[in-house]
Amino acid sequence: MTDLFKKINLIVIAFFSVLTVLFPIGFTLYLPLLIFYVLKDNRNIFYMLIPSFLALLLFAKEFVIYFLVLTAIVYILQMLLHRISKGFYVYGAILLLNVISSVILDRAGLINAGMLSSPWHLIILNIISLSFYVYLEHSLVEALKAKKMMRSLYDNSFLEILIALVTILGATWVEYQGVNAGLVTAVYFGMYFGTSFRGQNAMLYGVIAMLTLLFGFEIREGLFLPFVCAFYFMPFVYPIISLNIFLAVAILAKTDYHFLSLLSMMATSVVFEILKNFLIKEKVVEEEVYEKVYEQVTGQINQEILAFASFLERFSDGIKLPKEYNQHISDGIKTLVQKHCQRCDKQKECYSHYKAGLYIYFRDIIVGQAQDSDEYYQFTRYCPHVRELEYTGRSLRKNVALYDESETKNNSLVAQMGGIASAIRKYAVDRASKEELKYEVFAEVKRRIIGYGYHITYFEVKRTFVNDFLISLGIKAAKSEWDDIHSAISLICQNVMEKRVSVLFEKEERNTLYLKIIPEIKIDVLYGYGAIASDGTQINGDNYIIKDLNNGRFISAISDGMGKGYSAFYESNITLKLVEDVLSLNLDSSTALEILNTFYVIQDYLERYATLDLLEINRFKTTAKFYKMGGCTSYIIHQDGSLEKIINKSLPFGIEELVENYEVPLKDNDVIIMSSDGILENVVDANRLETFLKSVKDLTPQRIVYELFNFAVKNELKTNDDMTLIALRIKEA
Question: Which of 70, 150, 475, 518 has fewest C-beta within 10 Å?
């Protein structure tokens, strides 16, 4: 909506525009305004009803009953049309209500023109009323769709000027001691437009309003209106000073202009100065927006570099210990479990609640490293054998071989330096190869949203790439307005960016809707997952992640650490955390995994490996990329029942330097099955498995996971191993 939806302006408009009923036209001009405001926001009914009612009560009592009935009908109409496409239903309602109200007012003798005596009179009034509404609605929508070169033709300022002129017409019926309210209202809007537009549109209003008052109502003081608009082009307090000096000179010079009229203009300037901050929204200065966007983008790049540094630190912490040391730790943990955990009554609950931290807790107990985290404190309060664990840990400590860290660093220094250089080079190349949108585009998006009347409380450009942009913003509005906001912003971005976008709701907080704008999402992903540890242990050595990234990419991954139990769980867990970190850098997934693989390659002296089976779904392009570094075969079951297998051809992460991917186009209702080596590849009868996969393709993803676990349990398996399963279904957005 435009600035005229500011409540003070709306009250002024409602109070005076209803008085146009005193002309021999009935509600011809007021009805379109009433419907326009109410259909846009049903809360506007109160800001229209009360001022209009008071105006009629003071100056046209004979119209009060008809006005209340008309308002009630419009409100009921708003409720009926709220959930459907309005369009021609509204046009028909305007024609019908205008005809009925005009005929009733004519029969009641409230219109002196004798409307029924001339059907053409009634037809003309209906054409005026409908055209007025169509222009209000059309100009608001076209302002969103207009290309840059056509924007001036659909500027919302013309809409505001038209509404102001209708308000002035109604105000001319009110006069006190020779001061016409039409003049005061025209001066008020001249100040408003001069401050808001600061250009030819404000002067256009000044000229039209001057001619209307001067020749239509013989109000000679209307000549001052162009000067009012011109004075209010100036910033700060200069307008009120300049205007009042100008009017004071006119008074002191004893001109023929009405003294009280000039005095009322001076008073209006004082009132407007007081209310200005509430009436005028912050003007979007393009240079300031460009600067802010530049600062945001620069800050975002710095944040990504810091994130990359954090990724390096995490990797360093994860791999700095040599193989022999880790083997001693692993053996020590097994000893702790056998002596204290296997017979514990709380074993199952403990493993379930603390499994992500047990490896670290037990490791620190063995090496004697103090833990000061809240999680470890809660663990010590929960575990009944914590003192025994610490005592056994002290006895095991002597078996942990000391190592010379500097020697380890020296042995790998050259490899690490080369690997880091390669990783940074890949990172820089990936960033430089992406085409960015111009900052002016984002400034224009913000300008148009504000121009449409939405109050932006937060606006941040987080990514600027042509095919990977992200704008986060907050708009002061209620959740009930989401549909209108979604449509308007989608249309704005589509025309400014010249590509389709998705506007996604994030949250509602303190009467503010937070949303994000990204390239158009064409598919949604439904998913289900599950994991079962092999017999004899409560710790599954597999790990998985399923995550919808904020850039239109959806990832799911399974990692299987070497062996079983704690050590395998830790290896696969750290692998997936590193994958998640590096993919969050907004790099191409191939580049991100090549960087991570490089770091795994340079630590090959540790002999620590984990498989990685990663799927990246691009929701913009409707494609899937499979990265299989030692991962198991994945299945794609199409809607027609055909089955496609993505077979692993690579060794685990960090053994081969080349990272390959398999790109597959996706269709509606495709089902993708990913698993660790303990389930699908572990089934002896592969033909029976494929037949079963086809039979469950129409189930929900979570149900497919349950049924596959049941299938595996009931059929012959090659080995007894941990099982992890992810099922995904593709749906058109």
Answer: 150
Name the pairing type of β-strands 456-465 and 553-560.
unpaired
Of the candidates 199, 202, 221, 195, the residue with the CA atom closest to the CA atom of residue 210: 221
Query: In this structure, which topology does domain 523-732 adopt according to CATH?
Result: Phosphatase 2c; domain 1 (3.60.40)
pLDDT per position as a tens digit, 42-90: 778 888 999 999 999 999 999 999 999 999 988 888 777 765 455 678 8
Q: Give residue 367's pLDDT.
A: 80
Q: Which residues of 586-610 are buried (b: 16+ CB within 10 A; e: fewer)?
A: bbbbbbbbbbbbbbbbbbeebebbb
pLDDT tens-digit series, residues 703-732: 999 999 999 888 877 777 788 899 999 999
What is the reported pLDDT for 401?
47
Helices (H), 469-605: 482-497, 565-583, 589-601
Residue 13: both structure tokens together:
């408009």
Cα 604 from Cα 593, distance rounded (Å): 17
pLDDT above 50: residue 404:
no
pLDDT of residue 483: 87
Long-range contacts: 233-242, Cβ < 8 Å, 24+? 233/194, 233/198, 233/199, 233/202, 237/273, 239/191, 239/194, 239/195, 239/269, 240/269, 240/270, 240/272, 240/273
Both structure tokens of 534? 């092999």
Would you tell me which CATH number, out of the four given (3.40.50, 3.30.70, 2.60.40, 3.90.1690), belongs to the domain 286-305+435-519? 3.30.70
Our measurement of the distance from residue 343's CA atom to the centroid of its chain's CA atoms, rounded to an integer in Å, reads: 51
* Mean residue pLDDT across the chain: 81
Residue 467 confidence (pLDDT) above 80: yes
- Count CB atoms within 10 A of the CB of residue 420: 15
Average pLDDT on 694-700 reads 92
Angstrom distance (rounded) from CA 635 to CA 675: 9
The whole-angstrom separation of Cα 148 and Cα 441 is: 11
pLDDT at 150 over 50: no
* DSSP code per residue over 96-124: HHHHHHHHHHHHTT--TT-GGG-HHHHHH
Alpha-carbon dihedral angle through residues 539, 540, 541, 543, given to the nearest 10 degrees: -120
Of residues 616 and 332, more confidently modeled: 616
Q: Tell me if residue 275 falls in helix, strand or coil.
A: helix
SS3 of 426, please?
Answer: helix
Nearest to 728 by CA among 569, 535, 435, 529: 529
Token pair recorded at residue 470: 């992200």
> Domain locations in the chain?
1-149, 174-280, 286-305+435-519, 328-394, 523-732
pLDDT of residue 585: 72
Side by side, the strands of the sheet bearing 542-548 are 542-548, 553-560, 612-618, 623-629, 661-665
CB 423 within 8 A of CB 601: no
Query: Is residue 616 a contact partner of residue 625, using CB atoms and an 8 Å limit?
Result: yes
CB of 299 closer than 8 Å to CB of 222? no
Spatial contact of 506 and 514, defined as CB atoms under 8 Å apart: yes
How confident is the model over 423-446, as a mean pLDDT? 75
What secondary structure letter does DSSP report for 21?
G
Among 228-232, 335-339, 717-721, the range of highest mean pLDDT: 228-232
Closest of 268, 264, 200, 208 to residue 239, by C-alpha = 268
- Taking residue 174's Cβ as centre, other Cβ atoms within 10 Å add up to 19
Distance between CA atoms of 473 and 486, rounded to whole angstroms? 12
Question: Where is pLDDT greater, at 389 or 418?
Answer: 389
- For residue 311, which amino acid is it? F
The answer to whether residues 629 and 611 touch, using CB atoms and an 8 Å cutoff, is: yes
Alpha-carbon dihedral angle through residues 234, 237, 240, 243, given to the nearest 10 degrees:
-50
pTM of structure: 0.60
Closest CA to 29 of 99, 129, 98: 129
